Amino acid sequence: MRKYSLRDLINKVIWHPELDRKKLEIRFIDRPEGVSAIRGDEIEEVGHKFVFAHVPIPYHRIVEVRYDGKVIWRKGEKVDLSRI
């Protein structure tokens, strides 16, 4: 069974023709602010170590990913592409 990465999950939402990237929300640790969020339409690039939006966000700081308000991934869980 293939292991999927958080990067795979984000790319699926951004590039899948039936999914709306505006419904994607990535919550991340933003020092010193606490936890901040960006929407999928704010993402400029999905790199190997960072998600680039208005600031580069390292994957290890991402704590939760939501699609259409539903949590599809939380830090510490395995990535399951079928949850979308």
From TrEMBL:
Coiled coil: none annotated. Residues 5-75 form the MJ1316 RNA cyclic group end recognition domain. HAMAP family: UPF0248 (MF_01245). Belongs to the UPF0248 family. This is UPF0248 protein Ferp_1096. It comes from Ferroglobus placidus (strain DSM 10642 / AEDII12DO).
